[in-house]
Design a protein that fits this description.
3 helices, 5 strands, 139 residues, Heat Shock Protein 90, alpha+beta
Length: 139
């Protein structure tokens, strides 16, 4: 089953995404640890889509969808921006980047999901979360 929401590029719509993830978590009986990973990754990716992708343009949309693929929940976020190359982002764990205010979102997304794909020139991100993981057998 695939579920989705579409929001305008207003940062206040983050609350809509939170409710979407809450409903998803209840529907699939997602463990508390996995729920936290999914929620943070979703909020980071949607925030990036709104602010960096769509440049907070209220006429542009962010599309959030989920589907089950085997044992994985696939969370997809797409924006209407120009895209980016995730491989050209700085490493936020390097000493020169530690004190920077931004630049951690993609790093966090990659750390919290089991697999991450950037497609369509960086305007679409797919994050995979293993639904069979529990806190005892994570990463």
């Amino acid at each position: 089953m695939k579920t989705f929401i579409t929001i305008t590029s207003d940062i206040e719509n983050i609350t809509v995404v939170e409710k979407f993830i809450d409903q998803l978590s209840a529907e699939y009986k997602i463990s508390e640890d996995l729920y936290g990973n999914i929620l943070v990754a979703a909020l980071e990716s949607v925030t990036n889509a709104i602010t960096h992708g769509n440049r907070c343009d209220p006429t542009k949309y962010v599309f959030v969808s989920t589907q089950i693929d085997g044992n994985y929940l696939v969370l997809s976020v797409k924006d209407e921006g120009l895209g980016f190359d995730p491989d050209k982002l700085g490493d936020p764990t390097k000493p020169e980047n530690i004190l920077k205010f931004s630049g951690r979102g993609v790093y966090l997304i990659r750390e919290l999901s089991d697999k991450t794909e950037f497609l369509e020139g960086g305007t679409l991100i797919n994050m995979y979360f293993d639904l069979t993981k529990t806190s005892e057998n994570e990463h």
